[in-house]
Amino acid sequence: MLLPLLLAASAAVCAVQPAGAQIAATAAAAGAGTTVPGAPNCPMFPSDNVWNTPITRLPVDPHSAQWLLSMGSSTTLLHPDFGPSGDPAVAYGIPFVVVPPSHPTVRVRFEYADESNPGPYPFGSDVPIEGGNASGGDRHAIMVNPATCTLYELYDARYSPSGSAAGSGAIWHLRSNALRPGGWTSADAAGLPILPGLLDYGQVLSGRITHAIRMTAALTDTRFIWPARHEAGARDDPSLPPMGARFRLKASFDISRYSRHAQVVLRAMQQYGLILADNGSNWYFQGAADPRWPLALVDELKTIPASAFQAVNESSLMISPNSGAARQR
Predict the structure, then answer these.
(1) Rounded to 5 degrees, what are φ and ψ at 64?
(2) Number of domains making up the chain
(3) pTM of the model
(4) What's the rounded mean pLDDT across residues 192-217?
């Protein structure tokens, strides 16, 4: 049984409960960083990690106009890749769970074993798969051990009592800024962790989001830029965005006409931006699976024009190419 988590909408305790359904314990002090929903003693990486670093003062990247053009930004609206699914058992979004320290661990057979952490992983039949057990999509599985503050992520995860398998797997220590070895994938094409980039409904309710948000693009360059560690590009073309590219909602974009909860999301996009982490539909951004996502909020976020964004150059934040620690400006 997974660690019981209390939903804000219900006092019931479920045997398996996505940690994304929790009200995030977002730190109130500026720069204090984000904590893992359901594991308040674990940071979502250190407060100076690149995911948790504001980008309001960064310069516009010289490739910004080209990248936006390649992503169809002039005619595209943002698309929340989460929300009501019509099936209470399988919420739309990427689920993650906080597992008890005693949760059994298993060895996983990987398709990309040379770029995967061998584990073992606290993976089982009780761990939710993105899209459900019958999904034909990315089938991400994300687990956090709250005792060790260890993050486990799997791509194309498939559990079986006789032997589990996945496309790739990655393990992070949430108190560390260490990046994966250069050239290694993760459960994401960019070789980055997924969890710190998920928009969480509890964070929205808290009124403050203090991290960047994961996004996808249809076509990417065959290079990657810090903090990404891997690419899955279509071709060698600098007019295409590379993995790791960061996009910021322009400060001039008026968010005051939007609802209070939409403003929380849009303010985060102005202050922390979006990080390109995988191939997929242009301008899709990801959130934790949570049956409480209101359709009205999701529909409101679908009205934001991609043309209101600009790519920023975050190279000045890098302290070491092998660390996610960022200079605080």
Answers:
(1) -55, -50
(2) 1
(3) 0.89
(4) 97
